[in-house]
Each structure stands twice: as C-alpha cells, then as structure tokens.
TrEMBL record:
Domain of life: Bacteria
Taxonomy of the source species: Bacteria, Pseudomonadati, Pseudomonadota, Alphaproteobacteria, Hyphomicrobiales
Record keywords, A-Z: Cell projection, Cilium, Flagellum, Periplasm, Signal
Protein name (Swiss-Prot/TrEMBL): Flagellar basal body P-ring formation chaperone FlgA
Source organism per UniProt: Flaviflagellibacter deserti
Signal peptide boundaries: 1-21
Amino acid sequence: MNRTLALLGLVPLAIAFGHSAADAQTLRASAIVSAPIVTVGDLVFDAGAYAPMPIFQAPDPGQTGQVPAQAIVDAVRAQGLIVNPQGLSTVTVTRGSRRITEEAIAPLVQAEVAKRAQAADPASIQVSLDDTMKVVDLPSEADGPIALVDLTWRADGGMFDASIAISRRDGQIERRALRGTALETVPVVVLSQPVERGAPIEAHDLELVRKPKSEIRGDFVADMASVIGMELRRPVREGAALKSSDLAEPQVIKRGRPVTITLQSGPLTLTAVGEALRDAARGDSVQVMNPQSKRVLQAVATGPDQVTVTIARKLASNAR
C-alpha cells in the first residue's frame, strides 16, 4: 500500500553547514530502509555528514509510502545541502521487514491443537488464518525464533485465537495477534470425476483427501483399494466422500443374458447353458432358467456369466 509520508521537523546537527558547501547532490527515486526513521542518507546520494539527519517516519514494516520530492529538497536546503530532484515529483520509500507467512505459522498451531484434540498426527489439523493475518510483517530486527503463545481453541467449530512472539536484537519482544480456524481432519475417498451408476470404478476415478472430522458421519471409506472395481448403487457427485453404502459389488450376471450353469451333486459335475432372470453380483443368489426345459433353478453367481447350482444326489439321479 502506498501512502504519503509527512516530513519530520529536521533535527539540527552539531556541525554548522554552510549554504554553499558543495555542488548539488542527486535525489534517489526510491529507497528501502530498515529503521523506523528515514534519514537524508537514505534518500540522497553522497550526503556526507548530512546522512544521519532524520527526515520523516518510515512506513510500517513491509509497507511503502511516498514523500514529495520538493519537500525533501527544501528541507535539506535549509540545512545547507543542495539537492537536485532530477525531475522527480515524489520519492518512494519501502520499509524492509521480516515477513512471516501462514505456512510458517500453521505448523505451530497444528502441534498445539493436536495435543489438545489428542490427535496422533499434527498434520491432520487443517489450519487457516483470517485473510488479514495470513502475512505478518515484522521489523527486520525481529530475527528471533517464532513462538506461539496464549492459544485458545474451541473444538466445536475449530475457532482459535493466539499470538506469536518474536525476540528482537535489542532484547524487546514483538507480538502479533492471530485468529483463524484449526479443524481436525480424517482421510476419505472421493470421486475425482463423475462415474456412471453401474460402471466399474477405476483408480483414476478416485482421490484420497482430508475433510473436517465434524463433517464425516457414518460409514465413510478411507481405503482406495477397497473401492476399485466396485460400482455405485446411487448417483454420487464429484468430490463427495464415498460411503460403504454407496458401493456395490460389480454385477457379473446380467438379466436376459446367457450364463454357464455348473450343476454339482457330490462328485458329479455337469454344465449347461441357461438364461439369467435377474442381475447379480458375485456371491448373490440368482434364478436361472434352462431354455429347453423351462425349468428354473436357484443358483449362486460365481463369476462373469457363471453360476453354480448345488443339487441333491437324488435329483441328479432323476435327471439321468
């Protein structure tokens, strides 16, 4: 953010400077400063003994401000230094900072909230700072380690308030308030793209993501391998967490299609061709009909277009 900076009252130097001391010096178009006060030396090339003279208060850490060039020229001329503005109308000043981002703060919040939530993995805590606090600019001299202090966290909703404390080279402590959410999450399998009902689910249809634990209710699936090859019982939108109840074994028998019937009675095994009377998944009971005799048998689906009928030896004898 740019803002216009006001000149300070210039502090007289102990040395007396004559108004005709030297040729005109050149004004800088911009400067980056680290101190809270901007001096003549920050803005004027080769300012010599005038360099320590304060001109105005620097912007806040990480911020940029502007000061009228002519105001600087007039102020330093009154002290005996002639400066050529080189056609500049304003001079831009940026205050250097130590920038601390959400990425640096989040692990501290995760570790502390994980303890309070008794979560085994701090990475399961999803941290988001309020938008105005995602980046914190501190004075450059605040170069100590970041400490998280005064954390209050509400498990219901995940809202937290805290502060970070950073020591400075001069022994002082910089503190900044934080606010945001810290939610405990769990891994769930979601659809990464639409899948038609009845179509086999493939690995590229799936993604393992973390969702807030408070949003997960019921028999949600956390193992991708257990979903591959299954079918959807009902439509599920892309990105929604999958439940076990959303899934069904793939239909290996389709109604009206021919099937191979294996008839077993003790050591005797016979095969015949029949017609499935309904869809069935592997292991399901399904009725099949012998198209010649029109006899309906109760079978078990054992594979694609494969069913098995177990019959008593007496029935097998009658069949012969």
